[in-house]
Amino acid sequence: MSIKTHISNITFLPLKGVGGSIREDKLYSVMYILGTAMAIAFTMIIAEVYYIKVANIAPEVNRSKTYYLNDYLTGGENYHSENFSYQDFTDLFQKLKTPECVIAETGWTINVNLQLGDNLHERNVSFRTVEPGYWRFFKFNFTEGAAFTQDDFDNKRPYAVITEEIRDQVFGKEGKAVGKIIKLNFKEYKVCGVVETPSALTEKCKADIWFPLSCYKELCGIDYESLSHYQLSFCVPDSKRDAFIQELKEVQARFNTVNKDRPIDDITTDLKSYYAEVLEHISYMLRTWKGDIYFYLLPAILILLLVPALNLSGMVASRMEHRLPEMGIRKAFGAKRRTLLGQVIMENLTLTLIGGAVGLCLAWAALYGWRDWVFDIFSYDYNNNNGAIPILKGEMLFGPVIFLIALLACTILNILAATLPAWFSLRKPIVESMMLRK
Fold this sequence. Notes:
This protein has helices spanning 3-11, 18-24, 26-54, 86-93, 134-137, 150-154, 164-171, 216-220, 241-258, 274-286, 293-322, 324-332, 337-369, 371-377, 394-397, 400-426, 430-433, and strands at 66-69, 71-74, 80-83, 101-105, 110-115, 122-130, 142-145, 159-163, 181-184, 187-195, 209-212, 231-235, 271-273. With 438 residues, the chain is α+β, with helices and mostly antiparallel strands. The strands form three sheets. It has a six-stranded mixed beta barrel. It has a four-stranded antiparallel beta sheet with strand order 4-12-1-13.
């Protein structure tokens, strides 16, 4: 073999191979992986919590297309807020063309006592009264039967949709529920459908039982058409948002023609998206304005990455000092600085990705094991769940957004921890690098 070939082989020989490097200095590798894992775990817990809040997760598959109208401001000398009635909903909003779906809700759940199968015991359950469009807006998975229809709603039939959890408690795990009777406050209702129990984290549709809104008087003693407060929810694709705004302004004009004593000043002022509502809740929790939320969350995440990066950077710098003779020899045989730097970064990136994978698993384990209080810390109204442990499904934890966040966090951590120490070490002269230390 010629000298030239021998030098070429040394120049392009990997530093030690990632596997060899890990085995050679096991303590360093373990500390590096654990340090990375803890940083990624804390970062991913925050990311997972807010991902679950905003992602299109069943049954709330239309979050990205959802808009709300809770009330409106009347014009005139003295501005004040008023609410929409059910008559407003049917006359003005239900027939809108641009939304894929429009529903009116009372906006709250009600707790009552449900008689269990032995007719001796009761349990507290929450129910919602909804209209038929609700089942198009939210995508529940029916395991038995189906939702009540428009005909059932119009004829005020006492039908009920229940969760699998309620079915198991009332009729047994092997029993069928459709066509059978449940009793709430000693009133009878016929089960027409059973859905998978929704997670308490899907706060817009969580409940144990759903009844037709037309049965509101039997349940609560008040006719649903006389209620003065309804939240209107619209499912509008991004491509139709401008047309939707224009259609709302036409609705406003018709409303003001009929209601000259309480004209709407600007109907779009109180229109807000699902994301805007989430930001309002987060800002309330952080005691800050919506525009300042990112100034709290982003620095917090950066600190979670920066502090471990500084510690890991010290470890990398110390290790590079011990490898200076090796670097000096390689540079003496013609290895370029960027080649050596790239090899060092790849070596540390591999360790960082291993640590990131471990950290992501730790985050999932923490979210699942401590889900009864982790989401309580980061939520505005999670205490309304009556102490129930929320259900965590695979689609909540596994998603492309979470994967990209984890990958980005790993990359940032590696760049912060490995690049600068390696760069400064490789800038030292060959003679200084090849000096042997006692």
